[in-house]
Design brief:
- There is one protein chain.
- It is elongated and about 215 Å long.
- By secondary structure, the chain is mostly helical.
- The protein has helices at 2-5, 7-32, 52-213, 222-421.
- The longest helix has 200 residues, at 222-421.
- The chain starts with a helix and ends with a helix.
- The chain has one domain (28-405).
- α2 (7-32) packs across α4 (222-421).
- It is 93% helix and 0% strand.
- Residues 396-422 are annotated as: Disordered.
């Protein structure tokens, strides 16, 4: 019973080995169908053969070398593309710089042309123009001299007026002070008169009340009553007279106050007039000073213009010659700068095409490196499959040998039994 029970285990092992072989063959065939290149063409061709693993390992080593080479080639191509791009950028910058220099040279030439034209005009006009300029400067000097004289006279008149206005202001101030003093005295007198009138009225009223309340009233003799009434009347008359006097003093004080206000108004007018004239005098002084400075400056200008008129004919011709030489030099520089700029633009265009080509090569090398990496990955997986296939075959062979040995053990007793029966 025990030997027979071992057959199912053997059959299971053999089935597993055969299944692994079939799976490995399918995987190897599927991967090998997607590999491109001469080195990978043999993958999967000898599945199950003794040399399949060695072939796969050789292909893997070759793929690894190819991947390393492709990667280095891609790096070199990338570096070359970056160098080409940097070279193009430098060429473009140089071209832009030379374009700016060419534009600047052209502007310098244009300015030199303007200077040459101006110098030609100056040389053509010659001495006559300089003499006319000198006459104009002399006429300007005469006009400025007249302006200064008028400004100086007006300033002097204002200065003289300040003396008169200053005295008028001082007189007005003195009159105001005198009027204020008079008003103070009149006001004091009016206050005194008012106080005296008030006292007199109080005394008269008191005398009247006392006279009416006296016990003698009605009992005294007529002459005594008349005398009493006369005393009351005299007191009332005195009070009224004091009131009239106080009123007069009050009117005098009011008149004095009006005189003070009038004096203050005159003083205010005199003060403002003096201030206005002072400001005007300052402006006239500044105008006179400025006019004198302009006259002096113009005197210097006119003298220089007369001196320059005699020398300008020779100098204008020399300037024209120098301007013509400068114009020719600027023209030559502008032409050379334009030529250099064009050459730099052409070089930049070439460098741009070189950069584009290098970028294209770098992309192609990168793609080739990616393909080589993919082929290496496939080759490595194929080696793994072949290793598993060899292991599966070895396991199957071991299982078959074990099964054969078990079968021999089972049949040997039966053979002995048959021999004995015979």
């Amino acid at each position: 019973d025990e030997p027979r029970s071992r057959f199912p285990a053997m059959r299971v092992v053999a089935g597993v080995a055969l299944g692994a072989l079939g799976l490995a063959a399918v995987v190897a065939s599927g991967h090998a169908s997607g590999i491109a290149g001469v080195s990978l063409a043999t993958l999967g061709a000898g599945e199950g053969s003794a040399g399949a693993y060695d072939t796969a390992e050789a292909v893997r080593r070759n793929a690894a070398a190819q991947a390393t080479l492709a990667k280095q080639t891609a790096l070199n191509a990338k570096a070359a593309a970056e160098a080409a791009d940097a070279t193009y950028a430098a060429a473009q910058a140089d071209a832009e710089k030379l374009d700016r220099l060419a534009a600047q040279a052209m502007r310098s030439y244009e300015l030199a042309s303007v200077d040459d034209r101006d110098a030609a005009d100056a040389a053509t006009i010659g001495t006559q123009q300089t003499e006319d300029d000198a006459l104009e400067e002399d006429a300007e000097l005469s006009a400025l001299t007249a302006t200064y004289t008028a400004a100086r006279e007006e300033y002097q008149a204002s200065t003289d007026a300040l003396v008169t206005l200053t005295k008028a202001k001082a007189d007005a101030t003195a009159a105001t002070q005198k009027a204020e003093k008079t008003y103070a005295e009149a006001s004091k007198k009016a206050d005194t008169s008012k106080a005296a009138a008030d006292v007199a009225h109080v005394s008269a009223a008191k005398a009247n009340q006392e006279a009416q309340k006296a016990k003698e009233v009605g009992e005294e003799k007529p002459e005594q009553a008349i005398a009493r009434a006369k005393a009351v009347a005299d007191a009332s008359s005195a009070a009224k007279a004091a009131e009239i006097a106080a009123g007069k003093d009050k009117r005098v004080a009011a008149d004095a106050l009006a005189a003070v206000e009038s004096a203050k108004l005159l003083e205010k007018t005199a003060t403002e007039t003096l201030a206005i004239e002072n400001a005007r005098n300052a402006e006239l002084a500044a105008a006179s000073t400025e006019a004198e400075a302009r006259m002096i400056d113009q005197s210097d200008v006119a003298a220089k213009a007369k001196t320059a008129a005699a020398d300008l004919t020779q100098t204008s011709v020399s300037a024209y010659f120098s301007a013509s030489v400068t114009k020719a030099e600027m023209k030559d520089k502008a032409d050379k700068a334009a030529e250099a700029a064009k050459k730099a633009r052409d070089i930049a265009a070439i460098r741009m095409e070189e950069s584009k080509a290098a970028q294209s090569k770098a992309r192609a090398a990168s793609d080739a490196s990616d393909v080589a990496d993919a082929e290496l990955t496939l080759a490595e997986r194929t080696v793994d499959v072949e290793e598993k296939k060899e292991l599966a075959i070895k396991n199957a062979e071991d299982a078959a040998a074990e099964a054969k040995a078990e079968a021999a053990e089972e049949t040997e007793p039966e053979a002995k039994a048959k021999t004995q029966k015979a």
